[in-house]
Amino acid sequence: NMRTRIERGGHTVVGYDPRPEVSDVASMADMVSALDAPRAVWIMVPSGEPTQQCVAELAGLLAEGDVVVDGGNSRFTDDAPHAKTLGEKGIGYVDCGVSGGVWGLENGYGLMAGGSDADIDRLMPIFDALRPEGERADGFVHAGPVGAGHYAKMVHNGIEYGLMQAYAEGFDVLWGRNVAHLPEEERFDFNMSEISEVWRRGSVISSWLLDLTASALAQDQKLEQFSGKVADSGEGRWTIEAAMEQATPV
User: Fold this and answer.
1) Which of 120, 172, 212, 228 is the 20 to 30 Å CA partner of 127?
2) How far apart are CA 2 and CA 243, in angstroms?
3) What is the reported pLDDT for 137?
């Protein structure tokens, strides 16, 4: 989806993935060779070792004047080492938190970038293609130097997880009035879909996350297709760790 929006903006995209069925080229070296210098390479892989491997390999393939963007959910403390590794070769580095999920193709993406003014300015045509249409300030922020973009996205996701948990707990409390052991006059047999639709309109707790919840409840009020838990991607935990480091209550 990101590729499609970038191409719609008039840019050429060459993609590499270890899975041949979704890759334009056979290797990262072939990808670099297919791009005209100065190149911009956008990494979108899991945080930690996969991203570190990509940065290390690109440091040996790219040339002075090229720039790398880490658009994944890397921990912000990884950004300075990555910038140093690339900077020793004269290669720029930008960290960019990306929000929007599978709806980004239609709606655009919220982008939080960290890096030098020169690297950000150079990449603005790409950011413009990805962010929602409108004024530049809408959907994009140059959050600060290297690391600031991922830090802003980390806190964004920490808030997101808190909101999702609050909705989950609230619907659970509603659902609790449906249980059989309660006296009949105390059982309300709530229609979760209808309540979620009311909350979406004119309510102080309306949000895009609630919109998605309402859509899921409309298909299945018991949400039986969901497990009730998600894997730890790191960013909620990192947000709490950052808050403890600076003595900010969360």
Assistant:
1) 212
2) 31
3) 61
Query: How far is Cα 234 from Cα 157, in angstroms, rounded to an integer?
Result: 10
Can you give the length of the chain in residues? Answer: 250
List all residues 6 or more positions away from 180 whose beta carbon is below 8 Å from its beta carbon: 187
Ramachandran area for residue 19 (φ above 0: left; ψ -120 to 50: alpha; else beta)? beta
* Averaged pLDDT score across all residues of the chain: 93
Residue 159: other Cβ atoms inside 10 A: 13
Q: Provide the pLDDT for residue 135.
A: 64
Secondary structure class of 57 (helix, strand, coil): helix
Residue 215 has pLDDT above 90, yes or no: yes
From 7, 21, 133, 160, active-site residue? 160
160 is catalytic: yes
The yes-or-no answer on residue 153 being catalytic is: yes
Prediction pTM value? 0.90
Q: Which one from 153, 184, 185, 222 is the annotated catalytic residue?
A: 153
Sequential DSSP letters for 204-240: TT--HHHHHHHHHHHH-TT-TTS-S-----SHHHHHH
Q: Measured between alpha carbons, how far is 131 from 5 in angstroms, rounded to an integer? A: 9
